[in-house]
Specification:
The complex is a heterodimer. In chain A, about 70% of the residues lie in helices and about 0% in strands. Chain A has 13 helices and no strands. In chain A, helix 2 runs antiparallel to helix 3. The longest helix of chain A has about 30 residues. By secondary structure, chain B is mainly alpha-helical. Chain B has a single domain, classed as ABC transporter involved in vitamin B12 uptake, BtuC. The chains are: A mainly alpha, B mainly alpha.
Chain lengths: ~300, ~350
């Protein structure tokens, strides 16, 4: 059946896009607070191994979800202590978080390799899923998919409609003024960094509990970096992250289907498409230098040490 | 008791010299802990990791083989990092160097003569430099973030190599294995002392590169520009230095050195192309550059230490049954500790509540 195939493709696109969306959403909040955490890939892979382990050891996928989130938060706090409490270089520290995360997850996950995992199953909304065309897409997906959409709405509302969101953006745009106003720059940034870690951890757990139900070393395969690019692509706006994530999910799944259909192009070239697309998109979006400067949180990546 | 940071009036020379050592000591402590958790006596573990590989001639040769690419790449990265260009795609430039350099012996093995090896090395360096220039060009022309573009290109390079060795460059007489034909003697970088061990001349290239970096930073106008623009892009602009030209220069140089490291690895250590030619040298070299404080002598020392972790990992896996995955944890921790202790160069730690001198 023709439409069956289309629905299936759309469902796999949603599954591929969800982790990108969640991780990028977390990083968006982090960067809005003026912190550049390049450790998304590392936090995500730790989330994936903790998620897999938590679910496999307990038999309950929700324990896995919680473990993934906790792993991500712990990893992000390591980054927080260094960059926020002792003002290390954020770029270098983020990189080291990624390297450490990839190493640590490999070590932690060694016994999980080849082991069968636990799947976080799709929600069952009975007859609603049987609505033609849209039923399974809207009502028959995994819980984290719905959570990811809710996350976009909440982050958007929080950043632009609440006082706390305004404070967070103020800290990101001018930490000195925010500090002079009596705001605790470091505490706010810690909260943002931990939120980013929770999102990256959840995104990783989605990979090992929904996308595939196994643990493979380095299974994030650059998704954390693509999430970072998505934030730039979206010019730090939540709803545009949603669009970007689905665009990338579409490219990823599209090339997989092209490989399955045996398109007369080397499979490696098709596999490289998501990475090449990231570069193209970055170039297109960054070309207008004035616009980029306008959108970028002004204190992004600059360490803050209160001058007492 | 809460601690707070107080900026030092001028950077501490003492801690600038000490911080890599403190970081290394902290890594050893963390390593001892890691061993204990895995049920290995900590001292025996540390000995196997960091001392045993230094006790035999053959393993010193292996150390040189692994230190060579790390030092070569890190020397180039130091120029990038000093000038505020975040090239984290050295792994990809390394691979492209391996590919470009191998084109001659793979495609035209019948042309083999005395000039083969020099041509291969030059082509390797050129391949790495060209690949490194892509993110640099995208940065200066389109303002695209070089961290992300250079990293994305690593995946592209890995897939390109994979395609070549499984497809057009696969050895027709290789029983379908994904690898190219083995290079003949004239295409191999020779060993320094065949009797004693496997170490090839790559380590000499690495030491020459480190010396050249020292000279570049100390006595050339470029070196001065790198330091000025790195410290303050605005000051550099006022002095009439072009940060765009410097970006292209830094990426071409570091890409070229990474590419050279790539072809040195392929022609010296491996002897043919295969789907994977690097155990992450391009990323580990980032750690080498920072641990070495972005200066030549430091990089040589740090490259040796990081090479030691690779060897130690292999030794510990064989004799203690420890997972070789622990190596990357060690390397990651080392970078974390270096960055943390570097703070002490610019800041003093003080108990908060201490008001005097604020």
């Amino acid at each position: 059946m023709e439409h069956e195939l289309i629905v299936n493709v759309l469902l796999t696109i949603a599954t591929a896009s969800t982790p990108l969306l969640i991780a990028a959403m977390g990083e968006l909040v982090v960067e809005r607070s003026g912190v550049l955490n390049l450790g998304v890939e590392g936090m995500m892979v730790i989330g994936a191994v903790c998620g897999f382990g938590g679910a496999a050891l307990s038999g309950n996928p929700w324990v896995g979800v919680l473990a993934g989130i906790s792993g991500g938060v712990l990893a992000s706090l390591l980054f927080g202590v260094l960059t926020l409490s002792i003002a290390t270089n954020q770029v270098a520290t983020g990189l080291s978080l990624t390297l450490l995360g990839l190493g640590l997850s490999g070590l932690l996950g060694e016994s999980f390799v080849g082991q069968a995992g636990v799947k976080l199953s799709a929600v069952d909304m009975g007859p609603l899923t049987e609505i033609p065309y849209v039923g399974r897409f809207l009502f028959g997906q995994d819980p984290i998919f719905y959570l990811s959409l809710l996350l976009v709405a909440c982050v958007s509302w929080f950043l632009f409609r609440t006082r706390a969101g305004l404070v967070l953006r103020a800290v990101g745009d001018s930490h000195d003024s925010a500090h002079a106003l009596g705001l605790s720059v470091v505490k706010i940034r810690y909260a943002a960094v931990a939120f980013g870690g929770a999102c990256a951890g959840l995104a990783g757990a989605h990979l090992s509990l929904v996308y595939t139900t196994q643990w493979v070393e380095n299974m994030t395969a650059g998704r954390g970096w693509i999430a970072l690019a998505l934030v730039v692509f979206a010019s730090w706006r939540p709803w545009r992250v949603l669009a970007g994530a689905y665009l990338f999910g579409g490219v990823t799944i599209g090339q997989l289907h092209a490989q399955a259909f045996g398109v007369a192009v080397p499979s490696q070239l098709l596999s490289a498409l998501p990475y090449l697309a990231t570069i193209v998109v970055l170039v297109l979006i960054s070309r207008n230098k004035r616009l980029t400067i306008l959108n970028t949180p002004a204190c992004l990546g600059r360490p803050f040490v209160p001058n007492r | 008791m809460a601690l707070e940071l107080v900026k030092r009036p001028s950077p501490s020379r003492l801690f600038a010299a000490l911080s890599p050592f403190i970081a290394f000591a902290l890594t050893l402590l963390a390593g001892a802990l890691l061993f204990k958790i895995q049920g290995v006596p900590p001292l025996a573990g540390l000995y196997t990791y960091f001392v045993e590989p230094l006790t035999e001639t053959w393993s010193l040769h292996e150390l040189a083989i692994k230190a060579a690419p790390l030092i070569l790449i890190a020397v180039g990265l130091a120029v990038c990092f000093l000038s505020n260009n975040w090239n984290i795609g050295a792994e990809g430039q390394f691979i492209l160097g391996g590919i470009f350099g191998s084109a001659l012996p793979v495609l035209y093995p019948e042309l083999s003569n005395n000039t083969t090896l020099p041509v291969m090395l030059l082509m390797g360096a050129a391949g790495g430099a060209l690949f490194g220039l892509i993110p640099a060009f995208l940065k200066v022309k389109f303002n695209a973030n070089e961290i992300l573009t250079s990293l994305m290109l690593v995946y592209v390079a890995q897939l390109l190599l994979d395609w070549l060795v499984r497809g057009p460059w696969r050895n027709p007489a290789g029983f379908g294995f994904p690898q190219t034909r083995a290079f003949d003697e004239l295409a191999r970088l020779p060993a320094i002392d065949n009797m004693a061990g496997r170490a090839h001349w790559g380590i000499a290239f690495a030491l020459i590169a480190a010396l050249a970096l020292w000279w570049l930073l100390r006595s050339t106008r470029s070196g001065f520009e790198i330091r000025v623009i790195g410290a303050s892009p605005r000051a550099g602009a006022f002095a009439g230095f072009s940060s765009k030209r410097l970006t292209l220069f830094a990426f071409a140089l570091s890409g070229g050195l990474a590419g050279l490291a790539g072809i040195v690895e392929v022609s010296g250590t491996i002897g043919q192309l295969q789907p994977s030619i690097s155990p992450g040298y391009g990323f580990t070299a980032i750690i080498v550059a920072f641990l070495g404080r972005l200066n030549p002598a430091g990089i040589v020392a740090a490259g040796t230490v990081l090479a030691l972790t690779y060897l130690g990992g292999e030794a510990a896996q064989m004799s203690l049954g420890l997972s070789d995955k622990a190596v990357r944890v060690f390397q990651g921790l080392l970078l974390f500790f270096v960055l943390a202790t570097d703070t002490l160069i610019h800041y003093q730690l003080r108990r908060s509540g201490d008001t005097h001198g604020a």
